[in-house]
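Ticket #4471: structure output looks truncated?

Reporter: J.K.
Steps to reproduce: submitted the chain below (179 residues) through the standard prediction queue, then opened the result file.
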Amino acid sequence: MYRVTKTYGHDLGLTSTFRQPKAQSHCRFIHGYALSFKLTFECADGERCENGWVINFGGLKPLKEWLCHMFDHTTLIAQDDPALHLFEDLNVDKMHGKLIDLRIVPAVGCEAFARLVYERVSFMLQNRELGDTRARIVEVEVREHGANSAIYRAPEVVDIGLRLAAQGHIPVGALSDAG
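Returned output as attached by the reporter:
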């Protein structure tokens, strides 16, 4: 099995604002980060392309465009946010002009964004939007800054690890970061 990573770093400037309305901390207020994304792809030896690559990084332009659309100077609000209507008003304010570039998502935060990106990349791979590849997305890491990140990993990767641990092939402690 071969694995490669593609990183869209903080230097790309994917700055987004969001809030955690249920938080009992300052995270309930609108705040933002220059997010970074690290994606891990894999494929078996016989699945690599004619160049021997797991995935053609040059073919990931549609992914970068989608990341910019979703996370570049945008406000991400959870679909169940009780103040959603206020953000929608800011997105189409006819008197003052559009004040935010709104994205309504299932949930917000690093964990939610990692899963959102994972699911979008899976969809793009299945629909050949990222080229003719047999690669699979294994995990996505989203980083707010140097101290905070979250990883969403393919469910089958976690399941395989748990089965191997149950069979005694790998120590259970090796799975501490698996899910």
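Triage note (M.O.): checked the attachment and the full token line is present. Helices lie at 61-71, 84-91, 110-126, 155-166.
Status: closed, working as intended.
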